[in-house]
DNA sequence: ATTCTATGAATGAATG
DNA sequence: CATTCATTCATAGAAT
């Protein structure tokens, strides 16, 4: 019943690419899906949608082509990661080589046949001891001292800066993300949890997800 | 020969055949390790092994390659979390349906790949399908089942995953986990909190860990 | 057809 | 437990 072309990944509206029928492999987002995803990302500040949001988003995007929750999940995950990665390179405090394709060799020792090589091998002793709380799960948090420590780590930076992004995309024109009509958002409770704000010049007055989504397709999709 | 294949990783066969050995610091499970971990997870109901179990498991898996306790710990954490997450944004929270899915396909008795568990597995190293690179290659570990599958346009659940994961999920999945030899399961209680083991929808009539583990490398060989 | 690149998918490791 | 991050593997399409 639904317009979702369950097979054959919708053709791209732009470009040629007439249906290619490569279904069953990886998801190939349609231009509309991408457009909306980016809009949600940049104009609504959605970076890591929660399960609920993911569900709604994918449900909404389904009208533009086959898509599943995991696709949405990965999309945001990747988009965010790559944006961050890109930024990290440009502002990297210690401009490493970064782009040198590594394609070739410089095999770092170790002989493939036996593997290991460097590690002191498995010393049965000193196994982890981080977790211990109650019966099962435990948080390693800091323990884990093992033979790994013998290895020489090179600069381990672990900085997780939160936001900051730029309007790189803006490829598509006017976003009419305007909240106009009423909706049946009876359950958008935690929607705010992931609303990130970016530090600066983002116009983005993030609206609620349903609001945003609703603008893409006039109204109601399904009624469960 | 030896199951010492802890070199793990190995290159992917595509294109050029030069191994890329990223010598990363992170644990790269061998196919055997994964096979066993999954078996413990699915066929023995181990979800959050306690420190003691972790220790034994990792010690056991060590024969298949380098591994530490924390790896086991994280593996279970992640596996469980992802299985759950997958379900979260795959399943419609408002739709109680969705309880059947798959499970009807493969022989319930024991799953083809990870199954065994019961067999003394005289040859610890290898069956499994070809690859060893990261064990990945086309096996998406998790199912990501969505309504798409419910529609089953082609009437096929081709989960490109031979691993046949899931099946956990409060299912019954009749598993005759080898009720053969005497088990002195006096110690698998571990859970201190006794009965709260798997709160409710717990699957699997777990067997004692040692029992399970013992089946993997019953007769052992190598023995350095 | 082969190579390259952008990006989907996966997963180890953390953190809260 | 849920979330997040970093890396890496895999591949659809474009470029060559």
Automatic annotation (TrEMBL), chains A, B:
<keyword id="KW-0371">Homeobox</keyword>
<dbReference type="InterPro" id="IPR001356">
    <property type="entry name" value="HD"/>
</dbReference>
<feature type="domain" description="Homeobox">
    <location>
        <begin position="20"/>
        <end position="86"/>
    </location>
</feature>
<dbReference type="Pfam" id="PF00046">
    <property type="entry name" value="Homeodomain"/>
</dbReference>
<keyword id="KW-0804">Transcription</keyword>
<dbReference type="InterPro" id="IPR044555">
    <property type="entry name" value="WUSCHEL-like"/>
</dbReference>
<dbReference type="GO" id="GO:0003677">
    <property type="term" value="F:DNA binding"/>
</dbReference>
<keyword id="KW-0238">DNA-binding</keyword>
<keyword id="KW-0805">Transcription regulation</keyword>
<keyword id="KW-0539">Nucleus</keyword>
<keyword id="KW-0217">Developmental protein</keyword>
<comment type="similarity">
    <text>Belongs to the WUS homeobox family.</text>
</comment>
<dbReference type="GO" id="GO:0099402">
    <property type="term" value="P:plant organ development"/>
</dbReference>
<dbReference type="GO" id="GO:0005634">
    <property type="term" value="C:nucleus"/>
</dbReference>
<dbReference type="GO" id="GO:0003700">
    <property type="term" value="F:DNA-binding transcription factor activity"/>
</dbReference>
<dbReference type="InterPro" id="IPR009057">
    <property type="entry name" value="Homeodomain-like_sf"/>
</dbReference>
<protein>
    <submittedName>
        <fullName>WUSCHEL ortholog</fullName>
    </submittedName>
</protein>
<feature type="DNA-binding region" description="Homeobox">
    <location>
        <begin position="22"/>
        <end position="87"/>
    </location>
</feature>
């Amino acid at each position: 019943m639904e317009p979702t072309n369950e097979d054959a990944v919708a053709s791209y509206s732009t470009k040629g690419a007439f249906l290619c029928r490569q279904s069953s492999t990886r998801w190939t987002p349609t231009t509309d899906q991408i457009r909306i995803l980016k809009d949600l990302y940049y104009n609504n500040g959605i970076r890591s949608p929660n399960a609920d949001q993911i569900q709604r988003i994918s449900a909404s995007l389904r009208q533009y082509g086959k898509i599943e929750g995991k696709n949405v999940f990965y999309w945001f995950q990747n988009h965010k990661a790559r944006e961050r990665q890109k930024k990290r390179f440009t502002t990297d405090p210690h401009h490493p080589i970064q782009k040198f394709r590594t394609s070739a060799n410089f095999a770092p020792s170790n002989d493939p046949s036996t593997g290991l090589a460097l590690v002191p091998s498995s010393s049965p002793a000193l196994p982890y001891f981080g977790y211990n709380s109650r019966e099962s799960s435990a948080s390693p948090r800091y323990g884990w001292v093992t033979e790994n420590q013998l290895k020489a780590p090179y600069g381990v930076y672990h900085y997780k800066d939160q936001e900051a992004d730029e309007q790189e995309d803006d490829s598509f024109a006017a976003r009419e993300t305007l909240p106009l009509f009423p909706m049946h958002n009876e359950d958008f409770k935690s929607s705010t949890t992931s609303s990130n704000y970016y530090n600066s010049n983002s116009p983005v007055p993030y609206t609620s997800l349903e609001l945003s989504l609703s603008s893409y397709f006039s109204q109601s999709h399904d009624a469960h």
